[in-house]
Amino acid sequence: MQAPDTITIALVDDHKLFRKGMVELINGFTGYHILWEANNGKELIEKFTSDKLPSIVLLDITMPEMDGYETALWLKRHHPQVKVLALSMYDHEESIIRMLKSGASGYILKDADPADLKTALTDVVRKGFYYSDLVSGTLIQNMHKENTHKELAKLNERELEFLKLVCSELTYKEIADIMCVATRTVDGYREALFEKLHIKSRTGLVLYAIKHHIISVS
């Protein structure tokens, strides 16, 4: 019987032999279970009529009928609570950036060690994102580089201070104490950032800070 806290995963890849191996690998991880398998994005979408949804979609990029980019965008629009971990043979900068912009919470190569895959799955659930060495560093600095200075200019000094603090494990009350302001003032900073940056959650603020190199990913 599946434990109630088991992390469920939908695996989307058009190579059946590879998929079979991944199913055996992931089901062998303690606390993880493959809920669905699909050959492509179109087949995956057909499964989303179910009441039980996966925690993570492990998504290949290059697939027939509906590729990973289209599928990630569909999930972002229709099921934003479901995290996407991109799975690919390619380490091209363009592919990585495009998948992250399409809504993926991380990117891992198909030849990664099993331990790295487990770490990626765990990070996506616990932190809301997974950035390996492949994605961090230069890639993170390059993401949205055409908008970075313009968007950061929208934020005042106190909002930037709050943004850095919100990327920690501190509660909003603890952040208020550090900033020497009332909790309702911190709530105001949060709502202002949500509006200015078009973000709807604390996780979104963390991802924004990482993408714009406001905080370190190390």
Model description:
The protein is an alpha/beta fold and 218 residues long. Helices cover 48% and strands 13% of the residues. It is built from eleven helices and five strands, in the order E-H-E-H-E-H-E-H-E-H-H-H-H-H-H-H. It has a five-stranded parallel beta sheet with strand order 2-1-3-4-5, sandwiched between helices. Strand 3, helix 3 and strand 4 (83-88) form a beta-alpha-beta unit. Helix 8 (157-166) packs across helix 10 (183-197) and helix 9 (172-179) crosses helix 10 (183-197). It is elongated, with a radius of gyration of 18 Å.
In brief, what are we looking at here?
This is Response regulator transcription factor. With 218 residues, the protein is of the alpha/beta class. The protein has 11 helices and 5 strands.
List keywords for this structure.
single chain, about 220 residues, alpha/beta, Rossmann fold, Arc Repressor Mutant, subunit A, 2 domains, 11 helices, Tscrpt_reg_LuxR_C, Sig_transdc_resp-reg_receiver, transcription
